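Just wondering, can you check both lines?
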Amino acid sequence: MSFLVAEQIEHHYFSPSSVKIALKDVSFTVNEGEFISLIGPSGCGKTTLLSIVSGLLKPTTGDVKIDGKPPESQKSSIGYMLQQDYLFPWKTIEDNTLIGLKLNGKLNRETKENAIRFLRQIGLGDVEKSYPRQLSGGMRQRAALARTMAVQPKLLLLDEPFSALDYQTKLKLEDLVFHILRSYHKTAVLVTHDIAEAISMSDRILLFATNPGRLHKIFHVPEELRNTSPFESRTKDAHHELFGTIWKELESLEKEVR
């Protein structure tokens, strides 16, 4: 049985004078330990879909199941990492990392030790007592990853978490997140506008069309790319070929909108 199942998802946004269909008849599955990316033109409903999968938003019609249960019944098992780190500026990096555990009533000696161990694993052991303002953007995003992973989520939802970073830091964080998720066998869904990022990190890529938002096509990333780090993947011929294929498909979708 698939770990994540979305069936015939449709979502409407209502205003006093109109109805906007953000998503229409979206169905897909994700296996446990799989990494998928959602890409498509602006306004195709990617972030709306991520909010539905997280349980933050109820679809107008359709159904989502995570490990056989609705997402709203297991929010403590879902990790959400955003473009902004949203660290509390008045708390240390250690305290920020432990926030989720405290809110879920899971903070104890063992979970705290695991969280601190993870901080050190990703290179933040020497800044545990520092405050967010004392860290670079890349270090803050690593702290946000540590906070997300501390609650040991079954599913990670990543909404353009690297887009605000400089290119070199972005590539380093892609590699870090890729290896961490692989080593912990985590299931992940990434929303991104970066085709190269989607190819280098994913097992499959879901391309969405707009007006209304709908699943247009699914691309399977070749095994030789899935078995290499994101940085190395970008150097492969297969990466460039798939990039060209997706680019052309995306271009055709954007022409339809114009």
Observations:
- The longest strand covers residues 19-30.
